[in-house]
Design a protein that fits this description.
With 215 residues, this protein is of the alpha/beta class. The protein has helices at residues 13-24, 38-48, 64-74, 89-98, 110-121, 129-140, 155-165, 170-177, 181-195, 200-209, and strands at residues 4-9, 29-35, 52-55, 79-84, 102-105, 126-127. The protein folds into 2 domains: 4-140, Response regulator (Rossmann fold), CATH 3.40.50; 155-209, Arc Repressor Mutant, subunit A (Orthogonal Bundle). The relative contact order is 0.11.
Amino acid sequence: MDPLRVLVVDDHPMFRFGLAAMLEAEPEFTVVGEAADGQAAVRAAEALKPEVVVMDLHLPDISGVEAARRIVAAVPGTGVLMLTMSDETESVFAAMRAGARGYLLKGAQPEEIVHALRSVGRGEAIFGPDVATHVLGFFSGAPVATSPVFPQLTAREREVLDLLAAGRSNADIAKTLFLSQKTVRNHISNVFGKLQVADRAQAIIRAREAGLGQR
């Protein structure tokens, strides 16, 4: 059988290059292209017609969810595998609704990634063990033990981010949380650093993908 044509999408060059090199070492895959952001991924998918796109959820322009939606619409039949750090249930289901066939965490072993790509290339749906726990728990109605959204943030920083994702201004956030606007700005700056985002818009995208801001 011909090797599966794979497009690798991630904004971190070292991770992207490493993943592409690992896949190229497997005879069943050929990496036809790489992209560092969502819009470039969509353009590359339209031009290169890969069979599988392996993509991060968090990209510097449009989200991986939106990029997946556009790729599946533009190139029907393309399998999208999300390979990301986020295991929040809302992110998983947002990716599924966008047409992704697989969802795997970046801590997965190389053989797990290879297996997932192979499965997605065959038209199957596949989830990593941690992600599957969320999915099965959702459908069974069983309580699922979850860590706080963005555990690297303090409780107050999550409150600020939640209000930020709801479209509130700094002044509104300060008034709601009984803080000074300077303190709010400091919290927002800390959030940007911990989430590794460049601005307010990117922080809001990440927060909403994780289910915050639903007010």
